[in-house]
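Sequence in, structure out. Go.
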Amino acid sequence: MSTSNQTDSYDVDQIQVLEGLEAVRKRPGMYIGTTGPRGLHHLVYEVVDNSIDEALAGFCSHIENDINEDGSVSVTDDGRGIPTDIHPKTNKSALETVLTVLHAGGKFGGGGYKVSGGLHGVGISVVNALSEWVDATVWRKGNIHTQRYERGRAVTPLEAKPDADHSTGTSISFMPDNTIFTETTNFEYNLLSNRLRELAYLNAGVKITFSDRRVTPHRIETYCYEGGIREYVTYMTRDKETLHPDIIYVEGEKKGVQLEVALQWCIDAYSDTILGFANNIRTVDGGTHLEGLKTVLTRTLNSVARKRNKIKENESNLAGENVREGLTAVISVKVPEPEFEGQTKTKLGNSEVRGIVDSLVGEVLNEYLDFNPQVGDTIIEKALQAFRAAEAARRARELVRRKSVLESSLLPGKLADCSSRDPSESEIYLVEGDSAGGSAKQGRDRRFQAILPLRGKILNIEKTDDAKIYKNNEIQSLITALGLGIKGEEFDPSQLRYHNIVIMTDADVDGSHIRTLLLTFFYRYQRALVEQGYIYIACPPLYKLERGKNHSYCYSDQDLQEKIAQFPANANYHIQRFKGLGEMMPVQLWDTTMNPETRRMKRIEIEDAAEADRIFTILMGDRVAPRREFIETHGPRLNLTELDV
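Output:
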């Protein structure tokens, strides 16, 4: 085959050179991950991170965040103010350089910042590139400096006027470009407030104000926590029964790495919740700081247990998951030269941090347990109970372990598997009951869709130990069918048999309860499934609306009323309410709920780990009072029909 024509047509004209921030506008996903809602909100985080870096350096105590009436966002701090002098390399002001040049900032040496989160240096310039306009205001040396940018380019010169009333600081206002963010440019208050509250916990004493000026009256909240991450752990455990009165707190610095750890064990919890942060960035994929913490907790508590004769000489050590059962912890490290895996910064890679965490936490924890022997004894006793429960469940665990995903004969008998063996294209529907299971089996595409009917309501593992989990038939079926590993072990996505795990339940109270039980199972048993986006909720229609020979499906009461409003006033029509999936014909179930071309599905994501953990504890835990209070407070405001879509 000749390629000469192709070679001749590939010349210098095909080589594009993108100047300035054009590359960001051309490929925004490379810089912010997505141009959907997550990427939109990432713009705010990038600007706020600059102000937080000023706080880390000791020059900022108050950060104001405003969603303005027109939908733009303003972030204002009382830091030193971005420098405005001419930069020798760009012949532009330092402000314009920072806003228009990638990898420009005070975070690449030169003593600007010892520690910062935005070490890739693309933050505020990327915000500028992806905004319709940016207004920058800087207060420095008795002057107020202003400059406007549009789609990454300065459109006014830097102006300076005297302003003796304001000391120092920076304000960045921006309007996201709707030609880039075509899905939405509407900022979600709750999403931003969760992150700002988290930042206030991680930076003790820093005051963060957040207002939404799109509503009347304006919604304003202030976050400031002198107790820092200790208050964060208190917030997360306020609906649990704590095992010891005081939070165990570790603070220290070694080789330039600053460390904070707060620990609280709870009686009424059978799993752990450990939030890790590096330079204020949530490390959802873990890293060396979390590895160091887990190692030192296991070693220290085993050492104390043997010293106090809680573990005999011939007995095995407690495993890490035994020691951490019921633990809520926050670990925050500030590293001068952090090594993150990828632009998303979800895993810390600095090897030296592991030893630093081990050393600092080990010293403080040993001293605390020596001076508080009763606390140590209660923690060890809970760990021993977890160890005994694990031993009681060992045979069941081994049974699960032996059920290789390759041995289809060992898969649950009620599983209607798909023919594809490629997990990336395979999906499994978890449905309630044989009736819905029958419709789903007949309506599915057998090539890539599997169906697992569940009998009744599965076990609530929020208040159950391992022994009961592994003896439960429905849980066994779930673990085996999905190819999950053992609780407490590191998640291995290569063993997962389906990359789309879809919960499909009836649109009634029982269906909602079953869905919640399944979400509890995934969140507590194998949280990585949720964090990595494998869990979905199917959205079957609530109504079938028929008029003459035409029909349409409605997924909410509002949807139904809007369609009816389009009919003439005297029109005749018929409404069918689907109370259960079993009422739908297989072809209807396929057309509305299972066909990838027409269906609606919701992917489950964790936007606020601390709040998610708290809600699971309230709704599914042992204690009745917090659940009653939650229902009485929020119940009257819930639209239960909308929750089902």
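Check: The chain has 23 helices and 22 strands. The longest strand covers residues 131-140.
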